[in-house]
## 1
Amino acid sequence: MQRSDFYRPDHEQCQALLNGVEAAGRRVLDIYQRDFEVETKADQSPLTEADMASHHALVALLEELTPQIPILSEESGEIPFETRQGWKRYWLLDPLDGTKEFIKKNGEFTLNVALIEEGVPVFGIVHAPVLGISWWGQEGVGAWKVQDGQAAPINVRGLPNPEQAAWKVVGSRSHGSAEFEAFCAQLPRHERVSMGSSLKLCLVAEGAADLYPRLAPTSEWDTAAAQAVVMAAGGEVFNAHTLEPLRCNQQDSLLNPFFIACGQRSPQWEEALSYALNAVPTS
Ligand SMILES: Nc1ncnc2c1ncn2[C@@H]1O[C@H](COP(=O)(O)O)[C@@H](OP(=O)(O)O)[C@H]1O
Ligand SMILES: [Mg+2]
């Protein structure tokens, strides 16, 4: 879909953004490889100096590249909805997604940068410094996985027939829920993979996983960048209650509804989805 007055990073700007996010990732990696302090935020979630180093690096990058576009970051403090409501487009950042995984040192954390246009994540970069991989995608253009300087196009995969191959379902490593368990219990034959951060959505985008049911809380900055990648790769991220695509900045709260990410839809998937959702009250 082509929106009016749409800002599209051109090829050169995409490369500058990717380079800048990877440079911020190197600063995060420096901290990851040594001892660091862990604070607890007001919402009881952890914060490290890497979250803040990444936040400052990403904000500096975006302010230089697109000084006219406002920025909302997990670490930027509250911006009232009255202000945000007036934003036609803005950058949405999670400087360190998967802070718990960063602290556990299992490498499953990412830097997330999304461009939101009229509530829709239209461009996103997800960078995993320990893996040395970035995924990025842009509405109407495509999605790529970048490793060792090589960019390969990615696409979601068609859902396999579960009689021939188990569906691959990804779930959070640190934030499971009874709803997620109940949903999975109603699915056809599948195997589960636990993973931290936006990497779950990236696995769906590159066709390495079929479903990511997130029936537990997340915030918009946790998902927007990878949602842009999933959608640019041909997949969907939709509200588990209304089945509408997930949108950002629609209300005061920045919490997402429960959602499901999937690759290509199929009649078998629609049937399994409604069956599984019927068994699970979602919010
Ligand atoms: N109760 C809660 N409310 C809001 N967000 C939550 C939450 N519990 C976990 N999250 C979000 O889930 C993210 C981690 O996702 P996952 O479990 O898939 O790795 C966290 O990102 P951060 O690490 O950026 O804080 C956090 O934002
Ligand atoms: Mg996060």
## 2
Amino acid sequence: MNDTAATPEGASEGEGGEHGEPSGQRCGLVAIVGRPNVGKSTLMNALVGQKVSITSKKAQTTRHRITGIRTLEEAQFVFVDTPGFQTRHSTALNRTLNRTVQGVLADVDVVLFVVEAGRFGLDDAKVLALLPENKPVLLVANKLDAVTRRAEMMPWLKSMQERRNFAEFVPMSAQKMPEVERLLGIVRPYLPEQPWFYEEDALTDRTDRFLAAELIREKLFRLTGDELPYTSTVVIDKFEEEGHLRRIAATIIVERDAHKGMIIGDGGERLKRIGSEARQELERLMDCKVFLELWVKVRSGWADSEEHLRSYGYE
Ligand SMILES: Nc1nc2c(ncn2[C@@H]2O[C@H](COP(=O)(O)OP(=O)(O)OP(=O)(O)O)[C@@H](O)[C@H]2O)c(=O)[nH]1
């Protein structure tokens, strides 16, 4: 039973700076999964260092969602969301969602499987069954602080070892910062050696921009119900910081005129509401005043065009 970092298999790939470059940056996608209420959001927020995770009911809105980025020395951790694990209704872990989950997990470098220390139930087992065989999965036994009978942890961890060949066992508490920092150290070797995907200060700049787009998209889908196809997207045209004020202009891009009408609503009511709800939440999230301008454009067939996909950041 080893709860400290070990050198993972495959972590040495590409090591050594073939082209004479210093073997420097690491960057990888990290998924945090687990049944509801095990502390995933708490852990995510602590790992990233600020409140970033946004929830939305429509699975498709979380297609490419990055919930946080943390750059620590040479390593950049990019946390991705896995729709389906957020729901409180286990019935929603249906086949479609499972496919979405598996699609997301196929792209990540490492999975953090969160459970409550000393517990493993049917809901946990359902999530575990969805995890890919060929990825390193780290078992995070969270809420260790709530475990009174510590002696029972050893046999429990042993029983967990039999459920899967976990890459690491990390008993911890997401509410204790030193333990969260220690987890980052344990995850680090599992990030491939490659240049960072985002700038070093991504959280303070790019991510706010990214969050703005995500938030508008979330409101968009929430307020249009199931009518709007998930191919609609949001592009941030302007993101300016003036002291305690952010001026944001965004365009919602849809495929058809009918969708445009759907978003705008009678007398522009719906678009107004999308804008005002997004603005209020952005103000809360970024802790500043926000001026938000929203536009709707029809860009027919954009979802099929590679060029468009690239320019909107969906590569
Ligand atoms: N004692 C203790 N409580 C924790 C810890 N981490 C999270 N919690 C609590 O557990 C509850 C659930 O935490 P969340 O972070 O919302 O859990 P989640 O897995 O994101 O939940 P869903 O959004 O339902 O999937 C909250 O009341 C947290 O305060 C921990 O390390 N120790």
## 3
Amino acid sequence: MATVEKEEKQMEKEDFVYVEQTKGVNGLDKVILREVRDFSAEVYLYGGHVTSWKNEHGEELLFVSNKAIFKPPKAIRGGIPICFPQFGPHGTLEQHGFARNRVWSIDNDAPPFSTNSTDKAFIDLILKPSDEDMKLWPHKYEFRLRITLAPGGDLKLTSRIRNMNTDGKPFTFTFAYHTYFAVTDISEVRVEGLETHDYLDNLRNRERFTEQGDAITFESEVDKVYLSTPTKIAILDHERKRTFVLRKDGLPDAVVWNPWDKKAKAMADFGDEEYKHMLCVEAACIEKPITLKPGEEWRGRQELSAVPSSYCSGQLDPETVLQSG
Ligand SMILES: O=P(O)(O)OC[C@H]1O[C@H](O)[C@H](O)[C@@H](O)[C@@H]1O
């Protein structure tokens, strides 16, 4: 490369904007993360909610409904809602807790934690309870969420939740990264890593069953909480020849949800046919809630990669998929 050209390239890199604060739908505050090879992600402060994750070809990897309502108090339908301090309807709070419909702040003063020093496209968010929230859930906490778009395009979310109570009281919560993956055709999708695991079936009174030995495929509504799952789960989009690999830490459970046709029609913020193009696989901590004493901190991490299925030689063999990367 000629020297001038080289210098220009260098300049381009130095000027590169990894993190941009802007406005999204309905004027809501939004942060765009970009990486040099054209990967990108978008995060709304409303909900601390990732609403977009694109690969280097500009293809959207997360599902967001065309009917999503970007307006409080409804959580955004799609992307990655944060379920805290309660997953599901079981508890004293609204379904999936309140973190997904609160406005988070940018945390310019996040305590350091060991990360990859090559990560430049990241944002630190923080949620603390308002006086109103304290009436619903009488606990002080600091919830720090770091969202990183790694140089290779992986999307990483790390949650750090700390008990800040001054009354000496512990608190207990459940949690999930409620990730909506974009898939071409749900009937051509398989999930690997959950076979033979026990699950609670939300469609059958949370009764406990054991999954069969084959990878999971989809032909009707599913709403299951898989228990004590492995740290890697693969979602194979056969038609697009793309595999999502979900890696998780501190989150033993995994929810798998697709509303299918009837429930899709019943949801105001979800298109009737959209169930064909999404699948939720949610890294979670549900069966054994987390209890923190004052001063204690919990961490839960999720990392998503999207790779060509052919890259995982042996393709549909779960062992090969899960060991790659
Ligand atoms: O409609 P939402 O409150 O966002 O919940 C959407 C879905 O989330 C999870 O996957 C639950 O397991 C489902 O039971 C629920 O229907």
## 4
Amino acid sequence: MSQFSLRDFRNYQRIDLQLAPGITLFYGSNASGKTSLLEALFYLATTRSPRSRSDHDLVRWDAQGEAGVLPFARVAAEVERRMGRVRLEVLVQRRADEDGQLTNGAQKLVRVDKRPARALDLVGQLRVVLFTPVDLALVDGPPAERRRYIDITLSQLDPRYVRTLAQYQRIVQQRNSMLRAWRERRRPLRGIDDELAYWDQELSQAGGFLLAERLRAINELNQIVGPLFGAISGEPHPLSITYRASIELDAALTAPDLSQRLSAELRRLRQDEVARGQTLIGPHRDDMSFSVAGIDLGRYGSRGQQRSVTLALKLGEAELMRQRSGETPVLLLDDMLSELDTQRRTHLIAAIRRPAQQTVLTATDLGDFGATFLAEISRMRVEGGQVYPG
Ligand SMILES: Nc1ncnc2c1ncn2[C@@H]1O[C@H](COP(=O)(O)OP(=O)(O)OP(=O)(O)O)[C@@H](O)[C@H]1O
């Protein structure tokens, strides 16, 4: 990625930056806008904010828009891909009600090489791996955090995965609302099997694909993160990731086998699902666990161990993307070094200091870094929504 620009994004009115190919450090005091820069890059890669559910939050509060145009935020960058350079752009425009008052709604407009495109066509063009202090929830937080990790990784790698995931989520929603209607007797129970047949088939098909892809990725990730964890934490035992599916897996590992398994389970659970008014199995109910020497670190790991697991998982995610796509993702590390002890900090810096690894780091304090490191990297100072070289 080279050129990067923001307009009316969070506390930035307008910036145009040239990002160096190696490591760039953005430093500045709290609330100066460092995280917002990483958020913008993550948004451009995934069309999702890592910290905000509603897109309208991204538009600068004082943004005026233009004559007749509602306020909008824009993130754009030029990305060097193997096939050549591509220009990516996302616009988030606020919505207004009939009286012209701004609402909490927003619409997203995507352009690839200046041509309108769908969000799905953007994902995967710029690949990033983001690493923030809240990522510890990946290890000790709710299962949704872990599903998000694997979904974001695979979505950036495979357009079929993004499409199937979106489709799967729609199917689950639709199926759940039907099940709720049966539970509340708003729908006659007679004919339930016929009515669900179509949705079960759709869910099993999409679900089988997602599950097979997740299992394949976990398998590959295990090869990568095992040794990485040792290098970061100094522990002698490798880290291992276990996928915890909501259905029995045994030997069923191909997408068609898994679809069949899902379909049979759905039929078996019919009554339970109606009683609960929701879809009880499938990739949206699965989880993962992380263990070292047989000990589940989500439950029993120390903070330090959980931090090392998160680091290994994030660096592993970047390595998986590189192996699969031949393109190295941009690493975005938000205020991570300040939380690590000296040894882990040295390991992390060694891990990101690789040829062709573009990395964007943020920090409040330059004192977290050694002089040699600072001399090798590009530095930018962030202050009140402005960025200055040096
Ligand atoms: N839509 C918005 N419009 C204008 N300002 C915003 C908007 N959303 C957030 N802000 C403000 O932008 C500022 C920058 O936030 P950001 O999280 O990027 O800071 P930071 O430099 O990462 O801080 P820290 O070091 O504390 O993590 C904050 O003061 C925040 O309140």
